[in-house]
Amino acid sequence: MKKGKLEVMRGSGNVYRDFGKADADLAQVKAILAAEIIKELDRQGLSVRAAQRRTGIAAADYSRIRNAVLDRFTVDRLMSVISRLGSRVVVKVTVRHPEAAVHGAPA
Questions:
Q1: Which candidate, 82, 94, 69, places its Cα nearest to that of 60?
Q2: Other C-beta atoms within 10 Å of 98: how many?
Q3: Which of 19, 23, 20, 28 is nearest to 78 (CA)?
Q4: pLDDT tens-digit profile of 34-87?
Q5: Gap between the Cα atoms of 14 and 22, Å rounded
Q6: What does the alpha-carbon distance between residue 8 and residue 79 come to, in Å, rounded to a whole number?
Q7: Quick check: helix, strand or coil at residue 85?
Q8: What are the angstrom distances between the C-alpha of 31 and each of 24, 72, 78, 100?
Q9: CB 24 within 8 A of CB 17
C-alpha cells in the first residue's frame, strides 16, 4: 500500500461528469432509472424471464439493465420499463447557469 498522502476531492454528484464524459447528465439520468428498475425487480423477486412474461419487455433488455449496459436505451424507454413494472416516475428538472455548474462550486 502506498504510504504517501492522498488527495481528496469533492465530487460533483455526477461521476460521469467528474470523469469528463461528454453526455454526463444523460448518463446519470439513465443510471438512476436503471437502478430504480433493478430495485423494483428485486423488490418483486422477479428474474429477467419472469419480468419478460409480466411486462412483454425482452429478458435480454432486463439483463442489459442489470449489467448497466444502457447505450441502447433512451430515457423514455427506461421510464416505460419502470411503468410496466407497476411503478411511477416523477421527474424534477433543475436548470443551472453555467457558472453555477462548475465542478465543486456550490449550487
A1: 69
A2: 6
A3: 28
A4: 999 999 999 999 999 999 999 999 999 999 999 999 999 999 999 999 999 999
A5: 12
A6: 35
A7: coil
A8: 10, 13, 10, 23
A9: yes
